[in-house]
Amino acid sequence: MSLMSFLPRSGDLPPPDRTAFLLDFDGTLVEIAPTPESVKVQAGLLATLRRLRRKCGNAVAVISGRPIDQIDFFLGDVPYAVAGEHGIAIRRSPGAPIQRANLPAVPAAWLKQADELAAKYPGVRIERKKAAVVLHFRGAPDAGPALRHAAEAWVATDPRFHIQEAKMAWEIRPAGIDKGHAVRDLMAAAPFVGRYPVFIGDDVTDEDGIRAAVALGGMGFRIPRDFPDPAAVRAWLAALSGGGNDVWGV
């Protein structure tokens, strides 16, 4: 399939000085791996993102469900801005302080029960974040319904939290903060403000970001609906960052 088939369907992008890119990480820039720490950053991705930053006047952000320190581990200071934990934490530029939403902590009883579930179902992995807990069942697919049942029982007792579906995982997190919140927040300030937002993601957690980008007059893309896989996203971004009037439409 030709790279040109991955061009935005509604027309060419605006010139780079009017475009902003907001990119998911896992499953979008890199392939999903068996565990979060085992993902591989493919050769050329960092160079592509650096070129894209230069071309777009720094208006390149990564918006991920991961904590920001994990994005830093894989990408360093290559993205200009990073939003972690689905928008709970935002760093607006390299070296800037991380701003965190004032949110409730996950109850200790839920964390204890999560650990008990992991012991009961070998292969289940519990990921603790500052304001959320994730029940990963990629290593134990049959445990998914039982984990969902437990999570539903927890949030039924505390409406401040909700269940966010992810790929082979349930994330119990504060309600009202999502990737759409991160998009709106970043797009309200330099270097993103006034630009045409382009959001790219791969799962249900990215739909909020897609809706926010579209509501702001931009575009949203999702694997596999618009790109078949992360390799195609990387190839498209590489073509954009390398220049070419046929890509940018300028």
From TrEMBL:
It catalyses: alpha,alpha-trehalose 6-phosphate + H2O = alpha,alpha-trehalose + phosphate. Keywords: Hydrolase, Magnesium, Metal-binding. Its cofactor is Mg(2+). Pfam families: Trehalose_PPase. It is an enzyme of class 3 (hydrolase). Pathway: Glycan biosynthesis; trehalose biosynthesis. Its EC number is 3.1.3.12. It comes from the Bacteria. Belongs to the trehalose phosphatase family. This is Trehalose 6-phosphate phosphatase.
